[in-house]
């Protein structure tokens, strides 16, 4: 008792000394947020995943394509590698692969954002005029919504932004009963057939997550709707909502509404730090979104990515008629280590997303532009991978690679029975780690592996025989990814909606020094891992295909590419 009292008092002392958070999810450690690393360590920096030259980065903000230029803004701390002092940093690209840094687009300089410029979105207004809605933290630390527009529309780089004299445009008041510390992250707005703009803002009331709806005729004067667009009990704060129409034929402009058009509502749950989505229908008459039957809107629902991937945002690329998803991949190092390293946070490779044929889920695939970085290619002839075997994929730069592998002729009769209580894929993957031999699986890839296999990250499948179908499990096992005991070694898992009786089972992994981004079943399940190997670094990293199950599988396709370095900031 005396000991726990003492621990409590020490914690209290430090929290008072170090600063005070705006709220639990945004704790401000004043000692770290202005700390430039004296000796930055670039060992684990990525070669083709987006990151700033130094310091802290979190959410992608307001991505868009304007006059042939791709824009990415992001939450950035100019003074250190910890969260704080947040501005909207800005980079542009002509090819979606190489990026040039620009001056911060939005930074605190008026009462409506003097304590921070938090996440938000861009909307292209009629006349081809981009506009940013973002959350500002005001002098009372209340969250309010502000507008900024380009100073010079003829500059395709959109370097300078001016803030609206009407800011804040949306603010919590007693009358509208909004929780002032849970009111943030406006979405891209959409224009209804009634010529009225709509936007949603993430919020919560007690434990009920809310997508608060506002409407406007002129994009400046906004009125809160009586009902949220959607809400769900016991989900906590909804950060960075995203709401957009989808089709299995390609991307749709955010303003597309109409008969038979499905919508997706994505929520970043502050409680679990994962991005969840449902597929459903948008009822324009009632301005309500209703998830389809079976599309679950709580933390057991579908996720964009079952690993590290948060606060994501999509935009419609009108040039290529596709919807693109950006997402933030946070650290697996503990805070003192990333502060010392001098940088923190990466963006996932942008992904094209579309509705699966089943209309029950999304499919994601890395943008095709990234294939321009594919260098030396290695193809392996089709071969049977017997249970208990491993095959080295050599002649590629294993720490900077793109690998595609497909499995066929799977000995399905060897599948173990699926226990109906195995409903949580992450738990199942951590119970059945790489070393646990199964009937069918684990089979897949060992990446960022040291020669002696003291370190590796395994991305693999297991197949079980379910009640009336086979169940495919995809795992990303980080338990052996690093000899550094301080790194997060969570093992991630997802079920993949693939029928192995008549489909090949494919896996693609983008490996980039400290990141492994994997796409199972052609992009039906994605898992991103952040890993910090101590042995499998640079030229010391190896890549293997393996099968530790008792049943054999055939590698029907295996291509791997050394990836070239992109020019990033
Ligand atoms: N990050 C931003 C917030 C958002 C959170 C602050 C999500 O606007 O809710 O940096 O990571």
From TrEMBL:
GO terms for molecular function: hydrolase activity, hydrolyzing O-glycosyl compounds. The keyword Hydrolase applies. Gene3D superfamilies: Exo-inulinase, domain 1 (2.60.120.560), Glycosyl hydrolase domain, family 43 (2.115.10.20). Pfam families: Glyco_hydro_32C, Glyco_hydro_32N. Residues 49-366 form the Glycosyl hydrolase family 32 N-terminal domain. Keywords: Glycosidase, Hydrolase, Signal. InterPro entries: ConA-like_dom_sf (IPR013320), Fructan_Metab_Enzymes (IPR050551), Glyco_hydro_32 (IPR001362), Glyco_hydro_32_AS (IPR018053), Glyco_hydro_32_C (IPR013189), Glyco_hydro_32_N (IPR013148), Glyco_hydro_beta-prop_sf (IPR023296). Residues 369-562 form the Glycosyl hydrolase family 32 C-terminal domain. CDD domains: GH32_Fruct1-like (cd18624). GO terms for biological process: carbohydrate metabolic process. It comes from the Eukaryota. Residues 1-24 form the signal peptide. SMART domains: Glyco_32. Belongs to the glycosyl hydrolase 32 family. This is Beta-fructofuranosidase. It comes from Actinidia chinensis (Kiwi). The lineage of its organism: Eukaryota, Viridiplantae, Streptophyta, Embryophyta, Tracheophyta. The gene is CWINV1.
